[in-house]
Amino acid sequence: MTEMHSGLLTIIATPIGNLEDLSPRAGQAIAGASLILVEDRRHAQRLFQHLGVQPKTMALHEHNERALAPQIAQRIAAGEQIALLSDAGMPLISDPGFPLLALLREQQLPVTIIPGPNAAVAALSLSGLPSDRFSFEGFLPAKAGARRARLAVLQSESRTMIFYEAPHRIVATITDMAELWGRNRPAALCRELTKIYEECIRDSLGGLLEQLSQHPDKVRGEMTLILGGAPEQDPGEQEADRWLAPLLEELPLTQAVRIAEAQSGMAHRLLYRRALALTSGREPA
Fold first, then answer.
1. Shared-domain flag, residues 223 and 273
2. Which of 10, 98, 96 is nearest to 60 (CA)?
3. pLDDT exceeds 60 at position 155
């Protein structure tokens, strides 16, 4: 661990629901920092009140982080102890902070971390799905067309996948997944983790849709969606998908197959079969 004796940025994980999950070391670092970088000052106040501290804060979010990064780096270079928090969980994981970290890396300024709660890893552990290999996909695009295009690219992903999603889009997202990947794909929907109404629904994509339809009260709270991976493909299918996926985002199936065949030299029959699978969510017989 890097000692906090000179200019330093400390990345601090914060609770994803239950404030008692904050580590003692995280609390000490927050109390000792000269400046706390937060996503939302109002949201951070609840944590500060829990700790009994009122530190100096600066809002750092997606709309200002690139502009503020040089100023923050300069303050660290001058010897300030600065801490980076997100609203919940581990900073930088689908949260602000990357432009600042990239700049500190470029300038070789010191950074340390106090690890802790993370919704993605917590949900994966709860899901009952394979956890030896997984892919964190974060938030899918909000618009339906872009979301479906991204899901088509992930059609043949064999690792367990982790997604974050907003309550008002969760049904549309699961519907798209079921249409593209099949209703039988194993899944788990984890919501309100570490809170009073924590729940992890373990089912297929089709089963999740039925449960959410029957119990609309479940469509609320912070949501993490875990999806089982696709069956392992042979190398030829993987290569075909690599050529086809970006083409199918923009072109009709037959045109995408024709271009992929011309550019890759792969067999038309294989490319056409994989294109059908990528666009229909069904493995052709």
1. no
2. 96
3. yes
Would 28 be classed as within a structural domain? yes
- Helix %, strand %, coil % of the chain (to 5): 45, 20, 35
Q: Which domain holds residue 180?
A: 120-227
Q: Classify burial at 171, counting beta carbons within 10 Å of its beta carbon; exposed 0-12, middle 13-18, buried 19 or more.
A: middle
Dump the DSSP string for 162-196: EEEE-GGGHHHHHHHHHHHH-TTSEEEEEESTTST
Mean pLDDT of the chain: 93
- Stretch 221-242: mean pLDDT, rounded? 88
Longest dimension (CA), the chain: 67
189 and 209 both lie in a single domain: yes
Do 252 and 204 lie in one domain? The reply is no
pLDDT at 249: 87
pLDDT in tens, 9-54: 999 999 999 999 999 999 999 999 999 999 999 999 999 999 999 9
- Report CA torsion sign: 252, 255, 260, 266: positive
Q: How confident is the model at residue 1 (pLDDT cuts 50, 70, 90)?
A: very low
Q: What is the DSSP letter of 21?
A: G
Non-local CB neighbours of 145 within 8 Å, separated by 6+ positions? none
> With bands split at pLDDT 50, 70 and 90, how would you rate the model's confidence at 285?
very low
Dihedral of alpha carbons 41, 42, 43, 47, sign? positive
Residues 216 and 249 in one domain: no
Query: Residue with structure tokens 């951070």?
Result: 44
Q: Are 152 and 278 in contact (CB under 8 A)?
A: yes
Q: What is the CATH number of the domain that holds 12?
A: 3.40.1010.10
